[in-house]
Specification:
Number of domains of chain B: 1
Low-confidence stretches of chain B: 1-11
CATH topology of the largest domain in chain A: Immunoglobulin-like
Oligomer: heterodimer
Helix content of chain A: 40-55%
CATH superfamily of chain B: Cytochrome c oxidase-like, subunit I domain
Radius of gyration of chain B: 23 Å
Structural class of chain B: mainly alpha
Largest sheet of chain A: 5 strands, mixed
CATH superfamily of the largest domain in chain A: Cupredoxins -  blue copper proteins
Strand order of the largest sheet of chain B: 1-2
Order of helices and strands of chain A: HHHEEEHEEEEEEEHHHHHHHH
CATH class of the largest domain in chain A: Mainly Beta
Order of helices and strands of chain B: HHHHHHHHHHHHHHHEHHEH
Helix content of chain B: 55-70%
Strand content of chain A: 15-25%
Strand content of chain B: under 5%
Distance between the termini of chain B: 29 Å
CATH topology of chain B: Cytochrome C Oxidase, Chain A
Radius of gyration of chain A: 29 Å
Mean pLDDT of chain B: 93
Largest interface: A-B, 111 and 107 residues
Shape of chain A: elongated
Strand order of the largest sheet of chain A: 3-2-1-5-8
CATH architecture of chain B: Up-down Bundle
Amino acid sequence: MFRAIKYSLSLLAALTANFSFGAWSDLNMSPGVTQLSQEIFGLHMTVFYVCLAIGIAVLLAMAFILFKYRKKEGVKPADFDDSTALEITWTVLFALILVVLAVPATSVMIKAYDNEEGDINILITGHQWKWQYEYIEDEVGFFSNLSTSLDKRNNLAPKDKNYLLEVDEPLVIPTNTRIRFLITANDVIHSWWVPDFAIKQDAIPGFVNTGWTYVNEPGVFRGQCTELCGAYHGFMPIVVKAVSPDEYSAFINEKKEAKIQQALLTEKLWTVNELMEIGEATYQKNCVACHQVGGQGIPPVFPALVGSEIVMRNKARQIEILMEGVQGAAMASYSEQLTEVEIAAVITYTRQAWGNADSGDGKIVIPKEILDYKTNKL
Amino acid sequence: MSAVIDSHHDDHHHGPAKGISRWLYTTNHKDIGSMYLWFSLIMLFIGGAMAMVIRAELFEPGSQIVSPEFYNQMVTNHGLIMVFGVIMPAFVGFANWMIPMQIGAPDMALPRLNNLSFWILPVAFGILLSTFFMEGGAPNFGWTFYAPLSTEYAPPTVTFFIFSVHIMGASSIMGSINVITTILNMRAPGMTLMKMPLFVWSWFITAYLLIAVMPVLAGAVTMMLMDIHAGTSFFKAGGGGDPVLFQHIFWFFGHPEVYIMILPAFGIVSHIIETFSRKPIFGYSSMVYAIASIALLSFVVWAHHMFTVGMPIAGELFFMYSTMLIAIPTGVKVFNWLSTMFKGSLTFETPMLFAIAFVALFTIGGLSGIMLAIAPADFQYHDTYFVVAHFHYVLVPGALFSLLAGAYYWIPKWTGKMYDETLGKVHFWMSFLSVNLTFFPMHFVGLAGMPRRIPDYAMQFADWNMMVSVGAFLFGISQLLFLFIVLKCIYNGKEATNEVWEGAKNKGFEWTVDSPAPYHTFSSPPSLESLKTSS
């Protein structure tokens, strides 16, 4: 038996020799950058040390018993089977340990549940499979998508430090400001987690949950969706960039300016090539997860666009689907997610690409049509 | 009583029927027990193969062998099969074999119901597994199947999944009715409730848990069915429904379910530890009360799975405190096992090795459970690999090890043959080392921030994940050795004595009958006194 242990241990050593174990941060929770996250970290370490102590005590006692009372010639086992005093003692002991843990836990819990309004309120909406951020006071917002390339995910390009933890547009927040997050979802349940802020709140359709933070130093903080939300649950990271209040106002002004510019674009005269270019980029960012790169989809849940009757010959219905979504199916409405230009471009793109133009009517859609759709609906 | 025995006198010498009809029509508790055990062993290898796919995909960062869509199907079905197809049926198999023999009854109280509750199980899992070959693929929403991912956004096969869960539930409810009826009505004269073997006690309480919560699960899946096909909005926010309601209902079933998978393990391990310590179990009555309090508490802790859904703070605190309370009866059990071994005369045959590993590793799983109970800290732990590490520690070196321990402990009684002790020990040490190699590093990646149920991960988790995968492959291979040991025991084992283990003397009625146990045992009830005085 002991030889078996020895062999197994040397096997284990041989296996572990190939690993280069990194820093402490690879083993333990991050203390984070906010007062709340540090208090939660402190609580975690307290509970951990108490549990570690109990664990070591139990395992040592067990090792001692296993060694000391192994069967020996001529030694008869005892035959006691009860000791009320002993049992009451350790029951009370367990209860006392739990009280010691419950007191700090309750106090941290009360601090985490501070739902006062923030100086800045940000609405976070989870979508399959991206996050939407809207600055409520300033009436600007955007979507944040994973920016890691498919080549990296398919091992065709080398992966770097922020593999799967990088986005095209991070959430920007100012330092030294109380920020309240209002968290909800548009389709299934997601969960918005930034470990450095110790915020993990489920984003649930029909509910608005809250979380808050107050960051002292500028920095970039990364997190992930933590509630299974479908096929690409692992591919909707969160990146938060904390900047100085000055930089933050510059960022907000830039966003407001861009919003005005965007509105003007619907008036412009568009060429097919311009629409195709924007359309392809929009498709890559918003549609490939379900409808796939070649438009073949994953039937029956995600229908194919190649050779689709609607995409080839029914322009009005295709606009309607993009604007309203499809009831009872995974297709969401994109009227808020994308600009008029992007919607027109992506419809044009799907009607032209993959040979759809040759077998269908090949009609294009211009941004004005989308704007008209919205106006008529009102 | 004697009239009943007389009327069956003619049947005494008739053995099992021949061929397939023996298994299809059998009402014999030993046959049905064996079928449950073989069924769960087969499902263990199917669910295990899915775990191997998961670990192969997670071996390195980047896409490896399956698509994210298929990965989710693997994660979902691995969970469903291990919970409903392996751990639960295996314990029912033990219940069928051992409860009548431990209480001195000739069979289960409702033998035809017993046959039915087994035979609908392969049907349920046949339906579930057939969804892999259907358009849209198998269920892919996790074994917890949170709405609306499992309703509005589910693949069309979800309806088959719902039907399958209904059948599994019916099987469990019938099995529990049978267990309770048997225990209440068929104990040998003189065996009062507080003289029942602990395995019988643990199953008695488990059966009540099953009867209480399986209908709740049936309600949850029926509401899903209505949302999908009948236009209702139980869980549909757009129709005025409540997606969080699903989680409350699911976990009101789900938390007692967790204890359904561990209480019978407590019973098995208690018997093994007292046998190989050559001492009576320490604190029998506190063991019974501990199991009962764990079962009662399991009904008031469910929302500790939901600390991040946005409950009011009063809810968070209530569920934190009630969850922490569970540590008390669980701690009592661990200390009682240690005290049973204290001043004993210990030997380390394979069942004892697995039982000791159970106590040690279940303690680790229990302690990480206390950490998870601390609600504010759970904001960081929730839905990470820390949780995966925790529940695998209580379910694999916990529930599964107790099943392996029990199989080694009673297989000489079932087959009349001894298993190969050397191979058994090799199996133990391989399982013990690889199970820790697999699940211990999961604590680290979880704390460092790796969410669960993702098919690909960031670079800082790469080293530990590779180690976890190596451990998982070794653990998988080790279980093939178990299959070999079982087959070798059946076909080529040495004859076992009636008492089998030196320490099993006077430890229960099952050791007083022949090995292998005859097809019909205890046609007339044994006397509790004879067990006591034969020493």
